[in-house]
Protein: Zinc-type alcohol dehydrogenase-like protein
Organism: Cupriavidus pauculus
Amino acid sequence: MKAVVYSQHGLPIADPASLYDADVARPTPGSRDLLVKIEAIAVNPVDTKVRAGSPADQPRILGWDAVGTVEAVGAGVTLFRPGDAVYYAGSIARPGAYAEYGLVDERIAGRKPASLSAADAAALPLTSLTAWELLFDRLGVAEGGGAGQSLLIIGAAGGVGSILTQLARQLTGLRVIGTASRPETDAWIRDQGAHDVIDHARPLLEGLRGIGAPQVDYVASLTHTDEHYAQIVEALAPQGRLGVIDDPDTLDVVPLKRKAASLHWELMFTRSLFETPDMVRQHEILNRVGELVDAGVLRTTRGEHFGTIRADNLRRAHALIESGRSRGKIVLEGF
C-alpha cells in the first residue's frame, strides 16, 4: 500500500528525505482492531515532534487523525462492522495514518459525523479528544456548569484551542477568553465562540485587566507554557486550575501552593498507551462529538486543505505547523 514515511529523525522539513513516499505492507487486524481504508487525514504538532525527535529503526508512518471506511474487523470486535464510516486519532505506539490503510483499536474509534465530508471530519478526532478530556476530565468543569467563572485558553487559534473554545462556549456557562497575536487568528477565535480575545505577544495580565478579568478560574495552556507560566500563576484565582498539554522544559509547581491551585496534564494518548480500563471512553467521546456536530452545536475546525496525501504536501503541512502560524487544522484527502 502507499504510505508517507520517515526513516531519519531530525532532518529539516525542507529536506525531501524528511518525509518521503513509500510502498509498505498492508496491515492485518488483531482481535480488537479495525482495518480502515483511509480517505482523509489531518496533521498535528505531535507529527512534527515525533518526526524531529524520535529515531526510527525502520520507515515509520506518522499521522494521528484519520477518517475512512472499515474494510475488515478482528475476531473480538463488537462496536463496528465492515462498511462503517469511522474517525479516530489512534495510538502513538502504533503506525499512523499517512497511509492507504490503518489499524485502530475499536475502543478509540468513533462513528464519523454524517453531516461532514471526510476532510472536514478528519480535523476533529485528536483535538476533540484532547479538548474534551482537558475541559471535563482534567479541569473538572461540568457540562452546563461554570456560570460566573472564566476560562483562559492560551493558543486558542490552534487545533485544540479551536474546538476547546467551541466546547466551552456551547456546553458550559464559562466566560471564554482566548489568546492570539494576529488579526486573522483573533477573528478565527471569535468565530469559534470566544467571548474575548487578548494578545499573547503582550503581557497576559495587561490583556486580562483590559477586559475586566484580572483573575481567571481556569487556564488551558496549550503552547509556550514556560514562557507564560509566571503570569499564569498570577492570573489564576485562588483554588484555580491549570491544564497543560505542551512540552515545557521544566515546570515548577511550588508557586501554585500559595493559591492552592492545581496542575493537570492532558495527553489523549494515555488511555491507549496504557490500555486503561476506561479506554472505551474515547469511543464514547468521539460518538458524542459526532452527534453534536450533526446537531449543529459543534463544527469542523478545518483551516486549510493541502490536497492529496503525498510526501510533498505533508512536508508543506509540517512546515506550516513548525512556523507557528497555522490556524485550525490542516487536512489532506485521497491518494
In short: Residues 2-126+271-333 form a domain with the Quinone Oxidoreductase; Chain A, domain 1 fold (CATH 3.90.180.10). The radius of gyration is 20 Å.
